[in-house]
Amino acid sequence: MTVYSGPVFDMAVNQFGVIANHLEIPMDERDRILMPKRAVTVSCPIHRDDGTVAVFEGYRVQHHLTLGPTKGGTRFAPSVDIGEVAALAIWMSWKCALVGLPYGGAKGGVNVDLSTISKRELEGLSRRYMQEMIPFVGPHTDVMAPDMGTNEQVMAWFMDTYSMYQGQTVTEIVTGKPVSSGGTLGRREATGRGVAYLARRVLKELSINPAGATAVIQGFGNVGSYAALELQQYGLKIIAVSDHTGALHDPAGLDIPALMRHAATRGSIAGFSSELAFDPDQLLTLPCDVLVPAAMERVIDAKVAENLKCRVLAEGANGPTTPEADLVLEKRQGEVFLIPDILCNSGGVVVSYFEWVQDLQQLFWEEEEVTRREYAILDRAFDAMLQRAKADKIPHRTAAMAIGVEKVRAAKNVRGLFP
Questions:
Q1: Which of 37, 107, 177, 204 is catalytic?
Q2: Which pLDDT tens digit goes with each residue over 370-407?
Q3: Please, are residues 241 and 259 in contact by the beta-carbon 8 Å criterion?
Q4: What pTM value is reported for the model?
Q5: What is the β-pairing status of strands 246-249 and 277-278?
Q6: 95 a known binding residue?
Q7: Which of 33, 35, 289, 393 could form a disulfide bond with 213, CB atoms 3.0-4.6 angstroms apart?
Q8: CA 75 from chain center: how many Å?
Q9: Is 407 annotated as a binding residue?
Q10: Among this protein's residues, is 107 annotated catalytic?
């Protein structure tokens, strides 16, 4: 019996089962490695602009604190539930361990449709959520970050609320803050840059010249837009993008800087061009060199996996590929090179770690230093994944997750069980 349920949590459990079987982890160890240490559900009442009171449900799941504080984003979306949040926290644990960060995974969120609340109500909700979380978070317990539906401004409100409670400014309680409030240069771009950097590395492995290559981006939020911009700067043509409002397709290549300016002003890609409008359902199966799913979980099922026409699948989102689709991709390893999510989008948490370190030290780096260190960590993790995959003759996702799970398991075993 468990409080966690839903397709996303079931997917995380399924993936862990595959890894646990591969690593031959005894059955009596598995629940201790997999099940979250702590889950919190809170009510977040706020004053609406019309004078009424509304209550929203919020969550925070801390997977494990064996290697250090937990770390993870906070999403504001109508899809948020405790099962989804738990799955994302579990994936974050494997991600942090894979890239060598001293963190366990966490995730949080509020079930809210942002289109139904004003900016003032968003501030009230953000502050109330953090106020409810104060007994359970801290710079050495659980450090929050942005996710879907949250941004630098929300992180600033989180930080200010926590600081007011402490009676002093505590910048290190969250990452992804504005640079003017203790954030780090390069954090906003970090996840998308990392996705593009690893995709370019794979193109080199496959002897594909970026200058003649094409890319398709599903999701044009922070991750997708910066991945598109960076890939375009590497010489790729971005032939299609989509978000929740629709899709655009231009075989000659889209103007990504112009599209980013439009999305920043309008809040979406809607209205950018009626001539380039395209069916979003066909986007994932367009012929291209690099496909970046950077939107939601579970968008690539077995049927989509069978019809993928990309050479590189760079998972910018968390959990975009179902276990059934993974079985299809395993058979297509020679055709589709998978960069699994826990590696591909890890640039965000890597630079969040840098922000946390800089805040603790009150010593800040230049952006070139941040980016250089980010790419060095991504290179090391990518090399470890490839080496493991080739040595054990296993898919890339299995190799990446096995490295992460092994590290968490080893840390738990060496520390023992208290009491």
A1: 107
A2: 999 999 999 999 999 999 999 999 999 999 999 999 99
A3: yes
A4: 0.96
A5: antiparallel
A6: yes
A7: 289
A8: 11
A9: no
A10: yes
